[in-house]
Amino acid sequence: MSKAFSQTSLRVGSRGSKLARAQAELVRRALAKNHLETELVTVATTGDRVKDKPLADIGGKGLFAKELEDALLSGRLDLAVHSMKDLPVEIPQGLQIVATLAREDPADALLSRDGKTLDNIATGARLGTSSVRLKSPAAVRICAFCRCAATSIRGSRSSIEARLMRSCSRSPD
């Protein structure tokens, strides 16, 4: 939290995606239960603006947090809500993680047309992901070990909403 709180309400920073705003709203509701007024301040990040390149090519995890951190340090925000998975390992001096929400199910999810699973997708199917972990050669070997018919795992960087829309189209499988 910044040292200079706003007079009338706490300025809660969030990225603009639906998921980020939903997480920020959970925090705002928790604060409201403690009689604290808040206002949501949406902050566009480099990761939000640069959509045509893989994250690893433009800087990795800090891409979704840097502008939030800068807004906190400059006093434009009193607190920020952000997914832990997207935070850099080192937190900038002057900032700290002071609270976390209860953790939801951390399992990966597979979106597929027609309710297909890894056990019954077509031979040669393509899987799309933005996760470096899931694009790794180890993930491909795990697919082979589990008898998953997928032959390629390709990058797919977009919001959850866009991924759901694409799951109804022909690319990826």
Structure summarized in a few sentences:
The chain is of the alpha/beta class and 173 residues long. It contains 7 helices and 5 strands.
Can you describe what's shown?
The chain is α/β, with parallel strands linked by helices. The chain has two domains: 10-86, Periplasmic binding protein-like II (D-Maltodextrin-Binding Protein, domain 2, 3-Layer(aba) Sandwich); 113-167, no CATH class. It is 31% helix and 12% strand. The chain has seven helices and five strands; from the N terminus they run E-H-E-H-H-H-E-E-H-H-E-H. The protein has helices spanning 18-33, 46-49, 55-58, 66-74, 132-135, 137-145, 160-167, and strands at 10-14, 38-42, 79-80, 126-129, 152-155. It has a three-stranded parallel sheet, sandwiched between helices. Strands 4-5 form a two-stranded parallel ribbon. The longest helix has 16 residues, at 18-33. It is globular, with a radius of gyration of 19 Å.
Tally of individual domains: 2
Task: Give the fraction of residues assigned to helices.
Answer: 25-40%
How do the strands of the widest beta sheet line up side by side?
A: 2-1-3
Computed structural class: alpha/beta
**Share of β-strand residues:** 5-15%
